Amino acid sequence: MAIFDLIGREGFVAAPAPPGVTPNFDHPESNGGMYMAGTLTTLCVAFIFVVLRLATKVSMAGRKLGWDDVLIVFALAFSIARATCFIVDIEHYGIAHHVWDLRLPLNRNTWLLHRIGDIMWPPGILCAKVSILMYYLSIFRPSKAFRWTVYGTLVFTICYLVASTLVQIFWCNPVAAAFGIKTPGKKAVCLDGYVTDLAIGALNLLTDIIILVLPMPMLYTLQLSRGRRLGLAAIFAIGAFAVGATLARNVEIAVKLKDSDADQTWDVMYEAVWISIELNVTIICSCLLVCPQLFRYVLTNTKVGQSLRSLFGSTRTTQNSASRGSLSGFNRRGPRSKHYLPQDSEIELDRKSARSFSDEIPEGAIRETRTVDRTIV
User: Fold this and answer.
1) Closest listed residue to residue 15, CA positions, set 30, 2, 27
2) Keyword Signal on this protein (predicted)?
């Protein structure tokens, strides 16, 4: 039974309760807390990362906001709008309650806010995915094959998500019926939500996987430090979580919403929360690709960053020198040979012990000339 069918029907309970269950009209059970916890948590994190992303661009000299940054702001705006619609619906209009705990007629806003919230998702996820693909194009310029693959993914993503937006708007005939507005003398004919949502979810899962694996061959050929590789691994792990959210959404549709007489006002929230999490995590992934530039900029161009580098740099030097032993001419395996060259950290300590760069350097240190010739004293 579609939610639309519950609007305007007078004089009876929305649906009979299961055997042994008593309807509770005064204090109905709600799973709206699940939606708000998952949505608001990921939305707040997404908001923070979008702010960091914009700060990265505007704080670095010579950098300007690009179209990928504008798109991610739009994606965040659509996510906020979607969350607002569902939260208001949960708090005031009966969504997230069991259908047998609702009296008819349902408020028109129950379906109206649900439909508007659903319309916010396709353009939101479209902006987030296009932002990621545009960033790919900006950092992998030399590879022609890679660029054409990204272009193809862009076209496919734009086409199916624009189509998804139109499907959400023109869900019923007449169109007003999609928003819970009955037209006198006309019977509403609507799409099969189960089949449509599964098809859109499958296409979305496909593009999620493509976007996740697309840069992997290019990154494999790069010579990156261990720290950079770990950072990229973390980003891909979060991207994999977004793929998992899409998969979980499809499972919820297949399991809970297959029956047209299901407890739809309750079951629909499981799909809704995974859609919101997927959108917010995609926004976070897009920002994670850019935010490391801000951290590097802070470390190299601010007093706080320079102080941190100095602090951790001196700590590493002390640890390295301690692990290699003292500078008295002995290493872990025994006495050093007369041809032993001290390590860089030991050279630094020898310089400090000499208190200057004069010729008065302790025995065993290295004297450096302007021609960078090194001789053992």
Assistant:
1) 2
2) no
